[in-house]
TrEMBL record:
One of its GO terms (molecular function) is acyl-CoA dehydrogenase activity. This is Acyl-CoA dehydrogenase/oxidase C-terminal domain-containing protein. The keyword Cell membrane does not apply. Keywords: FAD, Flavoprotein, Oxidoreductase.
Amino acid sequence: MINTTGMVAETATKIYADLSGREVPHQAEAGQYPQALWDALTENGLHLAWVSEDNGGFGADYDEVFGAIWASAQAASPVPFAESLIANWMLDRAGLAPADGSVSFALTGHLPTADIPFGLHADKVVLFDEAHQEIALFDNRGADMTSNEALSPDGSTRMVFSGHVAEASAKTNLSRRAIEALILTVRAVQMAAAIETALNLSIDYVSQREQFGRPLSKFQAIQHQLAVAASESAAATMAATQAASAIARHKDNPENAWHEAVIAKVQIGHSVEAVTVPFHQVHGAMGYTQEYDLHHYTRRLWAWRDALGNEHHWSKLLGAELAATSPDQIWKGVTTGDWQAS
């Protein structure tokens, strides 16, 4: 299970409970940005949880912060909390000061165009240029943006930076794999939390809704669908937990957690495919309405599943690498979590 204890996780959980009720995602999609929620998160410094204390952050344990990310996904958070955590971590690892305001990230060396999660709502963006091993911070103002909020409720955008000069930049010893490992693990935690929340919504609905004189939960077909979904939810949570634990173990070099992160992204991607259709089906027509909460989770699940590549993309990469790896090393990785060559 994801660790939801500790100061960071418990503070985030309380903030989301107090300021992110079920109406907040609906209001956000209608154009009412939840500024009070974002202000509470930043006033408590939670967006800087992975920034070192010397650089103005908490220097919090990775696993504790994953608990805060879990809480944000359970609330279908319409603010760039996870994105700011990742982006400020990237800046910190490059020796740069954390960004003022909200910030997102992109892995690209191909400016002027970049795909930015939460780009519509982030003030700034951190870009990783792998070719030059450089981290750079840009202001989003003036960038041309295109988005599809029907598929990406968090306001992910494709941005075109024309004539923009970085506010700050620095060389970094972070590898692309290290950044990928953290991003994939964050998405895995978010997806596992959203699957569990959508499962609970579905169980509550079929327990209360009656048809033909009895609750929907009494029908064998419904029971079967939710039993499959529950098993997928458990598998997703376990995969996310394994990836989060690997990041925590390899905090000095997250690249060493890359395999666990990829495995989690693949497993949970398959889980998303397996659960989202039955979640909507057991709700009947209600499951397809704008007013009901379910779509806030399933649409995010589809977006997170595709973020940085879906399970098919990562399966191919991982499969190609394992095909070139010795059987002994694969066994060592599977049984001990140590995928580094001896």
